Amino acid sequence: MALSRDAAEQLALRAIAWLAANDELLPVFMGSTGADEAAFREGLEAPEFQASVLDFLMMDDAWVIAFCDSEAIPYDRMMQARAALPGGAQVHWT
Question: Which domain of life is it from (predicted)?
């Protein structure tokens, strides 16, 4: 089932809020992206920033599980949300 763009953005905002509250993982995100607090706040409404947060969280299964369990959402929902945001289309190399 594909998510609508609106549903994807809502899930991404939940992921951003979860990340912001995670004292251990937030500094890892900030360090790996080079974002500072101002950029983090400014990016909240930008679908590209929302997508970058989902991309970051999906780098580690433990992060996906922790977020999804805390929000009571299926594990595959993050990938569905990412696909509905800018740059999330599947790439076909053949």
Answer: Bacteria
